[in-house]
Amino acid sequence: MIFRTAVTLLLSAVATQLVAAPLDESKIQFIGPLGTQSTIKPHNTPHQKSIINNLLPQLQKPNQKLEVFGNTRSWQSLEQVNALTVNGMQALRFNFSTTRFVEGTFTLSGIEKAHVFLNGEPLTGKNEFSIHAVTGDHQVIIITEQVDDWKKVVIDYTPKTEHDEIVLTQKTTTALSAKQLYDAPTISAISLSPNGKFYVATERHYQANRKNAAISNTSLKNIEGDVLYRLSGVSASQVSWSPDSNAIVFTQDKRVSILNIKDFSIKTVAEHFTGASGYQFFDKDTLIFSWSNTPDDKHTLVKHYSGLEDRWSYARSISQPFLLDVKSGLVSTISESKLSTRIADFDNKRNTVLVTRNPVNYAAPPHMLTELVEIDLSNHTEKMLGEYRTFNRAKYTDKGIYVIAGPDFSQGLGRNLPKDMLANNYDGQLYLLNNDGEKPQALSKKFDPAIGGLQVLSNGDAVLNVTDKDTKKLYLYDESKRRFKKLNTGFDVVQNYSVSKTSKGQVLVTGSQASSPQALSLVTVKRNKTKVLWDSKPVAYDNSEIAALEEFNFTNESGTQISGRVYLPHNLDTSKKHPALIYYYGGTSPVSRGFTGRYPFNLWAAQGYVVYVVQPTGATGFGQEFSAKHVNAWGEHTADDIIQGTNEFLEAYPFVDKNRLGNLGASYGGFMTMLLATKTDLFSASIAHAGISNITSYWGQGWWGYLYSGEASKNSFPWNNPSLYSQHSPVFHADKVTTPLLLIHGDADTNVPPGESHNMYTALKLLGQDVELIEYKGADHQIIVRDRRFHWWDTMLAYFDMHLKDQPQWWDHIYSK
């Protein structure tokens, strides 16, 4: 039997100000019993932790009922509980909100065996459980194994200090959380069959009890979404379809296998091909793939560099294309070049393969040369199609070969710029190499979006993924009409896409919007109609509080419109002043409108910050002249745009406190943060992640420093333009910095070496300025792993809370002296 409990929650205080307030029993829920009538408790078995952890996810769900061994158990408020449970586990859950980072202690009385979880994470202790909680909404679940008398159960909360108050709620909506954004299910890879009737998709999500291990499931489905087959340990990104859509090839447990989707029989066609990857059907009985080999280094004590590329750990691996006969298992070599030969495309009707090679050639920016070669498999002859300084991709079409490259491709064929401007070759353009050998054609000179990739339909049209201002869109290039048409995907940001080869054309697409999470859709190209196949919003974001989004553009002093957007916290009180964060990149790409990502604007808004994202001069997606201003500028225009944009933002949003502004960026954006700190005192606190402090050392030491500088500093070097390399480098102006600055870097960063942050840290320390340096051990240019990602997000927000909200407690909790 269950009797009504006496549960008390102390919501405030310490010392003489300690005030006990009874927990409102209508705001705490009870469920039980959760087992059979067996008296054996989990703690009496060797599997206690696993039993509890397996139950937890079901208790976290907002469901009001739970099926347990054929019996329905319902959550009910404690005020309705009037009987004593004799056997079986029971559980309590309640939600609370905080308006700042808080710390305190839960004390349980009357519960002999309890497992306490805060937001899915276990709290340690027997009767006392210390907590810390950030701004937002939180859930506490208590699983009890043994309660002798529910009348004697008491839960106390003791805050660490006066401001560590929590408020119990029964809100129907909840603020976004870091775990929600990271752990939510997403479609990480997709592959659509050539006939458009089937697809393979990989779904991935995380659970607190699995820590950093992702839970992935790959399924073969028909276009209606019915699961036909499950592929364990396989990603859809590694799956390739046969031309007739009757089979797929995949790699699993070091075996290359073919699945017949008619009878689901599996045939293994190769095993233990170490270094082989990218298996595709050349025709129904032949696979084409790449096979790499790394020669043994005879020098055990030294590394004798053979060129600039040798800084790359994989530079000495040589990759070549091969054919595999499915029936006999015989492997045939396609190329024997001493250079890595990469497959760009192939055509089994022509019996040819397009490949690229990169001979060492530093003669001109960006100090890399790409050879485009066609191999005729009928006689194994090679035809050099061209040598290019800018080159991204090549795909066959009936009339020739589509090429994506920068404006300077083929002696500047794609330029749409004033003669005195240098092109930014990160601004991808579309070209056609004709079958008849005539001069290549520039197809996109007057098309402002930057083209990143393409897939070709059977009729010769191409589906292009492009950067269109701050969006990632799909366009159709109509080959017969020579025009571009935007496809209606329903997304601001297309993440993955896969194209069928049918004449009507179908495109399977994953993506999101700035204020809506990821979904999976099918687009019919001919009709330009979209059908949603799966949506993560009802799965992981039901009743979530999403920031309001507003567009905010302005015209800079040179007359160019600068785009931006503003995220407003949910239910923002505009009668009060609020802190704000200004985010930018400033490099060759705009900050896309993804719902989440490494820099989660919606999460920052949920933490009470107004967020302004600005797209300064120099990014691709706004036209060639806009992107060309990135070349040889190194922040010259970008800093002016950010400063002007911030001032215009303050004028347009009077409820933003001009004395509580934070700014941050990463990589080139980290460089911009440091540079801005030398130019303005507009900001109250700044964060630079993996930023460049000395353009010269980045140019010479970053893995891709000299290649990137081949565009960003085109034709400029420390010996012929020393002022660019010194006067635009923040460390040379460190004595002008007055703003508190946090430098974050991975100590294994190969893109922007950690010494770039050390340069600035050393300078500011010697100058007696307020500077912090946080290095993530073993991390490269990005912080990816789940627990590190949460720590990194917490670090940035805690730093801003300390400086913009006068709340140092979170920072002190993370980085206790």
Mean pLDDT value = 93
Strand proportion: 35-45%
Q: Summarize the biggest pleated sheet.
A: 9 strands, mixed
Helices, by number, come to 14
Question: Roughly how many Å apart are the termini?
Answer: 51 Å
What class, by secondary structure content? alpha+beta
InterPro entries: AB_hydrolase_fold, Peptidase_S9_cat
Organism: Pseudoalteromonas aurantia
Keywords: Hydrolase, Signal
Signal peptide: 1-20
Which short descriptors sum up this protein?
single chain; 817 residues; alpha+beta; nine-stranded mixed β-sheet; seven-stranded antiparallel β-sheet; 53 strands; 15% helix; globular; disordered N terminus; AB_hydrolase_fold
Q: Can you put this structure into words, describing what you see?
A:
By secondary structure, the protein is of the alpha+beta class. It contains 14 helices and 53 strands. The strands form 13 sheets. Strands 45, 46, 47, 48, 49, 50, 51, 52 and 53 form a 9-stranded mixed β-sheet that branches. Strands 3, 6, 7, 9, 10, 12 and 14 form a 7-stranded antiparallel β-sheet that branches. The protein has a 4-stranded antiparallel β-sheet with strand order 16-17-18-19, with no helix packed on it. The longest helix is centred in the last third of the chain and has 19 residues, at 786-804. It is globular. The protein starts with 7 loop residues before the first strand and ends with a helix. Residues 1-18 have low confidence and may be disordered.
